[in-house]
Amino acid sequence: MATWTNDELTAIGDAEELDLASRRDDGILRRPVTMWVVRVGDDLYVRCMNGRSGAWYRGTRTRRQGRISAGGVAADVGFSDVDPADSALHERIDEVYRTKYHRHGAGVIGGVVNPESRAATIKFVPER
């Protein structure tokens, strides 16, 4: 399995926002969606504010592949689900969201730090 380089982790993890384009059934990339991204250890995560019913999240279910761009890094990735029952990991992800995006206020951060969004957490796996 491919892993992120330290430079990639830093660039993407420090980026304010990330663009994600998932692949359709025919392999063509959908239009990119801009979202927040967080780094926990050597992994990168995003969450859907609308939970599993969110349009972009549903698009990631088709092929579980896509392309991301953030911090000057563009990469083809696989989308790996994060177990909603892994409370320790979700608490770490919550904390990074709260710390990184604190200036947006608790109400906005609450959009990605809640049970519905936790259920729609994706880990990016580099495809090389």
Give a short synopsis of this structure.
It comes from Nonomuraea turkmeniaca. With 128 residues, this protein is α+β, with helices and mostly antiparallel strands.
Query: Quick one: biggest sheet?
Result: 7 strands, antiparallel
State the order of secondary-structure elements, H for helix, E for strand: HEEEEHEEHHHE
Q: How many β-strand stretches?
A: 7
Average pLDDT value? 96
Q: Based on Cα principal axes, name the global outline.
A: globular
Q: Looking at this structure, what is the CATH superfamily?
A: Electron Transport, Fmn-binding Protein, Chain A
Q: How much of the sequence is in beta strands?
A: 25-35%
| Gyration radius, in Å | 14 Å
* Total count of domains: 1
**Which residues sit in consecutive blocks of at least 5 with pLDDT less than 50?**
none
Label the structural class: alpha+beta
The CATH architecture classification is: Roll
**Spatial separation of the terminal alpha carbons:** 9 Å
Widest sheet, order of strands = 2-1-5-6-7-4-3
Q: Would you tell me which CATH topology applies? A: Pnp Oxidase, Chain A
Count of individual helical segments? 5
CATH class descriptor name: Mainly Beta
What proportion of the residues is helical, as a percent range?
25-40%
